[in-house]
Amino acid sequence: MQGALDHLSGLWKSSREHRMLNFHFEAVYEEIPAKPPDDRWTRRGKTTQVMIRISEWPDNHFRLWLPEKVGSFWDNWNPDVARQNFQASENNGLTWAFHQPDLARVEVELTPLDNTVLLETRVLNISSGDLKDVTAANCLQFGLALDFACGDFARIYLRTGNEWSSLAALDPKSDYPHYFRAGRNTAAQLAAARAAGRFKSPTGLDEDVEPDHPLLVCVARDGDRSVGTASDDFHCLFHNRANPHLWCMHSHQWPVQVLRPGNTAVFRQKVYFVEGGLSDCVAAYQADPVKD
Fold first, then answer.
1. DSSP codes joined into one string, 44-105
2. Considering the entire predicted model, what is its pTM?
């Protein structure tokens, strides 16, 4: 695999002519995620899931929590607010908004762009004071994507030390490994992040491997299709194989540490649906004019 991944070549050239994919989006309020081997991450009620279907990839339904959590303002495991009333957008996507009186307004939009999907969360500070450690996290799930679902880490890839590697080859310590961006995962930073509630993972889930690229890629069983996700100014990447109902991938953006009154924090993440393997997915990211 590494021979085909020339990490010194700058912008990679794809050897494929990619056809346009036909997306279908539907928001569904149902399903309690199946209980994983331990009970730490089980939702206690229904959640709203955005189902992404692709006509050309039948039998593969990509489930998305959009978002899963937004700072301390909203999360989908709170049954009082977990029902999201998504609306169709002018861009053939979906939109949703949540208003927390005297604190923040959250606006979410999913926009299809060629063979990619843009996920954007905007948080407006409507309070009279600063909001600290503002975050937004999306959860891209492969439990219903039969050709992609990966429970052994062998087809999930990240880049570290300027080389692409499967998570299996990195020998993670847990079924829920977190990989923090190079230069941004010092012990002090992680302790501060947990103290602020930005990350709920215990120390045992933190890996020593430091990714140096925002893209996390899942390659299909046939090796001929791939899905990658990357966030702006990424902070950490992780894949959850502990819960086969989810088998999800995450690329999280660095938190906005101070959001002034009247200002808006923007969190952007792209999902790349590529007819090709790992190198083609990386090439799609490199060639994407809307990634930054």
1. SS-EEEEEEEETTSTTBEEEEEEEEEETTTEETT-TTT-----EE-TTSSEEEEEEETTTEE
2. 0.87
* pLDDT tens for the 292 residues of the chain, in order: 333 333 222 223 334 455 678 999 999 998 877 766 566 656 778 999 999 999 999 999 999 999 999 998 899 989 899 999 999 999 899 999 999 999 999 999 999 998 999 999 999 999 999 999 899 999 999 999 999 999 999 999 999 999 999 999 999 988 889 998 877 655 556 566 656 655 545 556 778 899 999 999 999 999 999 999 999 989 899 999 888 889 999 999 988 989 999 999 999 999 999 999 999 999 999 998 765 5
Q: Report helix, strand or coil for 286.
A: helix
